[in-house]
Amino acid sequence: MKIFRVFAVKTVLLFLLAGIAYATPSTQIWIPSTDIQAFKKGHFGLDSYIKTGSQDGATEPTVTNMGLTAGVLPFEKVQMELGVDYRDTGGNHDYPLLFNAKLGTPENALFQGSPAIAAGGYDFGTKSDITNYNLYYGLAAKTLGQLGRFSAGYYTGNKDLLIDIDGKKDNHGLLLSWDRTITEISDKLWAAVDYQGGDNGYGALSFGAAWKFAPNVGVILGYDIYNESTFKPTATVQLDIDF
To answer: At residue 194, does pLDDT exceed 60?
Structure first.
């Protein structure tokens, strides 16, 4: 019975993980960032997550996520973005819509030297206990000169969907990241490393780099290593267009 239960939980987690991908709020590689779209500015993201190996002999489908995000507040020191995503998992279009929102302040907005602060949520699905992951988070970020920007925060989500490999509740954890424009090479080159805690389908260490092909167009190439070792890593390609 225990072997069957573990197999069943792995199967459920495999399905849930296949449905997780990010073009949602403004992000680093994997986790949200404190960046927020400016008022009346839009962002289109097209992200693909490609498994680099099979799971229990089964090849997981590629996840493709198309997202639109827009800034909705006309203030300099308090900003907000809203977004919607359409998620395709290997041709599965059941309950594909997910929603996100973020409110925050940029660096130096509260006082000179103050960090950027953001709070929001993402992956609000339309089907209870299927796509309503409902992740809420808070983040603070500070740029330290040539060292780059460092971010730290915490998240929590739906305890019925965010579980570990044994089926136990695992619905919260740390959010950490570093990112920097690599000006020594080019102002068009950006790199990042981020981490999301937890042994659920969201917990991962990710890293990658982006190149700006135009002022409003960039492509990210990244790699995600999941905290739960039975989940195979994913390579990610992300197209970002501002308009």
So the answer is: yes
Residue type, 102: K
Q: What share of the chain is helix, strand, coil (3-state, %, to 5)?
A: 10, 50, 40
Query: Is there a contact between 107 and 92 (Cβ–Cβ < 8 Å)?
Result: no
- φ and ψ at 134, to 5 degrees? 50, 60
Amino acid letter, residue 148: G
pTM across the whole model: 0.88
Question: Residue 92 sits in a domain of what CATH number?
Answer: 2.40.160.40
CA-CA distance, 155 to 173, in Å (whole number)? 6
Q: Kindly state the average pLDDT of the residues 98-122.
A: 97
**Boundaries of domain holding 203:** 2-242
φ/ψ of residue 13, rounded to 5: -65, -35
Nearest Cα neighbor of 81 from 115, 46, 120 is: 120
Best CA proximity match to 175, nearest among 157, 155, 192 = 155
- Give the count of beta carbons closer than 10 Å to the beta carbon of residue 148: 17
Domain count, the chain: 1
Each residue's pLDDT tens digit, 168-179: 999 999 999 999
**Using CA atoms, how far apart are residues 232 and 51, in angstroms rounded to an integer?**
7
Contact (CB, 8 A) for 69 and 42: yes
By the 8 A CB rule, do 192 and 211 touch? no
pLDDT averaged over the chain?
Answer: 89
Q: Nearest Cα to 202, choosing from 152, 157, 140, 166?
A: 157
Mean pLDDT of all residues in 183-208: 97
Nearest in space to 209 (alpha carbons), one of 27, 65, 28, 26? 28
